[in-house]
Amino acid sequence: MVGGRRPLMILAALALLAPLTAGSVPAVAVEQVAPVTAADRVLGRADAPVTVIEYASFSCHLCADWHQFVFPVFKQRLIDTGQVRFVFRNLPTAPEQMSLPAAALARCAAPERFFDVASTLMRGQEAVLRGGTLDDWWAPAVAASGRTRAQIDACAATPATRAAINRDIESAHAAGANSTPAFFVNGRRVTDRSLGGLEVAVRAARAGR
Question: Angle 96-108/114-129 helices, nearest 10 degrees?
């Protein structure tokens, strides 16, 4: 059970997002993945030949596993070497009282701290799912965010933050991503999320296949 002593204001502020969470949006025709914009959270060179987009949820245990055990090597081999530009987009899943506030917290971090916050949330996820408090989960993420708790709360309550997360959700469903984690390599869905599977997809994308 997910609990917390003093929930962030963002939990209430994001209540309007609930109808758009994964699993509650009607099926739509599969379209191209939405192009990367300045609003996205991106890691890696802007001119990298391959773009990998991940749709993930901070309450998804498969996402947490990937970020803890695959992402560090993926980053070392593919992002840090200039081969891949990596984009993280939110696709909140149940329980929404975890995923929605966490998505807003990460979104409201200083942009250069986003991936630090995301990693912190993924590492702490299991403790919450086992009965830990939301406040104990959020505190290290806020500390890594480059913002104060008050600044995070104020940012999360804005229409701009709600709209940014909604855009991620809508783009995921438009691309046919209805579960997490979902990966797209140069716009093509890749179902093998292992390091080897993604490396194969990146090589194919670089070769124009």
Answer: 160
- For the chain, list residues with pLDDT below 70: 1-31
C-alpha to C-alpha distances, 56 to 65, 98, 102, 152, nearest whole angstrom:
11, 13, 12, 21
Task: Give the DSSP per-residue string, 117-168.
Answer: HHHHHHHHHHHHHTT-BHHHHHHHHHHHTTS-HHHHHHHHTSHHHHHHHHHH
| Tens of pLDDT, residues 113-142 | 999 999 999 999 999 989 999 999 999 999
Please spell the DSSP secondary structure of 18-62, one letter per residue.
Answer: GGGSTTSSPP----PPPPP-TTSEEES-TT-SEEEEEEE-TT-HH
Cα 138 to Cα 122: distance, rounded to the nearest angstrom: 11
Single pTM value for the model: 0.86
Q: Which residues on adjacent β-strands are paired with residue 133?
A: 3
Tokens of 27: 């099926």
**Cis peptide leading into 95, omega within 30 of 0?**
yes
